[in-house]
Amino acid sequence: MTKTLSMLGAAAVLSACASSPMMMKVDNASLPEPVRVPAGQKVMMATTGVGEITYECREKKDMAGQHEWAFVGPVATLYGVDRQAVGKYYAGPTWEAGDGSKVSGKQVAVAPATPGSIPLQLVKADPAMGAGAMTGVSYIQRLNTKGGVAPAMGCDAMSKGKRQQVAYEADYVFYGM
């Protein structure tokens, strides 16, 4: 309960900082080159995702007897500037608006974020499913990440198969032509 209230409070603060749920200025020139959107793209919508990333303790591929925390998938609520939920984000990666439209895509690039935070990311979107807010989205940036890295606790043969959720936040900026 405390964790949920803390995450909701953080979402409210981050959302209040955005200029509008539909518009946000992003200075792509100041971002690491790999996560910049191509020229001509315009911001269609910006949200703040607040949720968790699940990791599982698994044996390392091609390294029998050695283990690591492996990424399983994210689950987050997307908030607009009005502090209201406007959609959700989940494995795929998939972003789904409250109107039912959704978009999935493929990671194009990542760039380091602050220590202890998942990387910044650029995703090339597939055509949207359903008509609505996600129609026309061509790229999605993950910016201003906080948290979400693999657990610091040990991962060994005794904990193989154990899952751990890690809280994270990120701004998701949606672009189109």
Key descriptive features of the protein:
single chain, 177 residues, mainly beta, eight-stranded antiparallel β-barrel, disordered N terminus
Task: Write up this protein.
The chain is 9% helix and 45% strand. It contains one helix and eight strands; from the N terminus they run αββββββββ. The protein has one helix at residues 2-17, and strands at 42-59, 67-79, 85-90, 94-97, 102-111, 120-125, 139-147, 163-176. It has an eight-stranded antiparallel barrel. Strand 4 (94-97) and strand 5 (102-111) form a beta hairpin. The radius of gyration is 17 Å and the shape is globular. Residues 1-21 have low confidence and may be disordered.
Q: What is the fold's blueprint, element by element?
A:
Elements: H1 2-17, E1 42-59, E2 67-79, E3 85-90, E4 94-97, E5 102-111, E6 120-125, E7 139-147, E8 163-176
Antiparallel strand pairs: 1-2, 1-8, 2-3, 3-4, 4-5, 5-6, 6-7, 7-8
